[in-house]
Amino acid sequence: MTAWMTLTTKRRQVAIAGRIIEAVTQQAIAKAAIKIEQSPPEFRQILRLKALQARNRSVELDRVVSAIDGCFYFLDLPPGIYTLTASLPNTGTRYGTVTTEALTVSRNAEGNLQTAIAEMVLPTTALTGSVTYNNKPVSMARIQVEGSSTSAFSNAEGSYLLTGLEVWQLTPSGQPPRPNVQVFARGYPPLVQGVQLKQGELTTHNFELAARSPKSS
Known about the structure:
Blueprint lengths: L13 E9 L10 E6 L2 H14 L8 E3 L5 E5 L4 E8 L10 E2 L3 E5 L5 E2 L1 E7 L3 E8 L2 E2 L4 E4 L5 E3 L5 E4 L18 E4 L6 E3 L8 E3 L2 E2 L9
Parallel strand pairs: 1-9, 10-17, 10-18
Antiparallel strand pairs: 1-4, 2-3, 2-5, 5-6, 5-7, 7-8, 10-11, 10-14, 12-13, 12-15, 15-16
């Protein structure tokens, strides 16, 4: 008589699900690194056991990467209190980090996990403001970070927005930061000004254009 084996499949359950977006544009962020920062003792014990079993192999049950739509999830976590931290690797000072408030993972009466939802907003280093001449808005002015391809055009109200910028540091002598933002508008001389940025913050800087000098006869 042939002995038959019954195979059962364990259904995996989402313990924490979330989405990460950029603070200024509200657009989804792909390839963000989300890590479990705080967790209950049972989960930390699981991590220790997996590390011992894996030896030289990488085991990263406590971190995931966001998908193209900014979504992410953690599966089969033991009940308890968790916090998550998110960042965007290999982007220098263009973005900051964000940490969630406490997230509670629990089970219902049937033993199924109750999914905790984590909405994460990643701070970006950004510059906004207006371009004017004689206190009137200048549209279609091109605002560009010196030495890079990062640029934007002012709208009909003269407003502009640049996101994902690198931070320019003060000079060693403590002088203002070197000029690093250029403004080009048809009919006006180019304008170059230094702007001090802070990582993960939105800085406001307005540009006032000068009148074009009359051509010499």
